[in-house]
Amino acid sequence: MINKTYVGILLSIFLLIPLSLHAEIKIGYVVVEKVLKDAPQTASSNKKLEKEFKSRTDDLQKKGKAIQAQEKDYKKNSLTMSDSDKQKAQKKIQNSKIEIQRIERELREDIDIRRREEIGKLQQQINKSIEELAEKEKYDLILYQGVAYASKGIDITDDLIKALGKAK
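Above: the chain's sequence. Below: its structure in token form.
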């Protein structure tokens, strides 16, 4: 009799334990590309980069216009130029084009480096906001990147963008 009671109690415990373990889990999913595109920090970061590189970009455009003027002048005057003057003018235009390509490449590289720095800062803010949102809304799991499928019901991307707007 004791064995039957003992077995009954153990059986009840084993049946109740899985029920408590299957408590509802709250899961959220974040579309990182959308956050990076729509977060208010992205717009301010782009303005900051634009302002930071404006003088170099303007200088590059001026040099490009100067080369176009040189080419136009060359085409206009090439019929009356001597062969040596033509070669000198062509070489000068070619060297100017090579120089402007170098400057443009360096500018692009510098902008890319700064953009990656700004994205790194934004990713830190995103991670912090995800943690804060998870604690506030009592999420057990929030996923991003590498998810094969996520339903709209667990997509919290817009909530995260709002949180980032408040964190600004």
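The first helix runs from residue 2 to 21.
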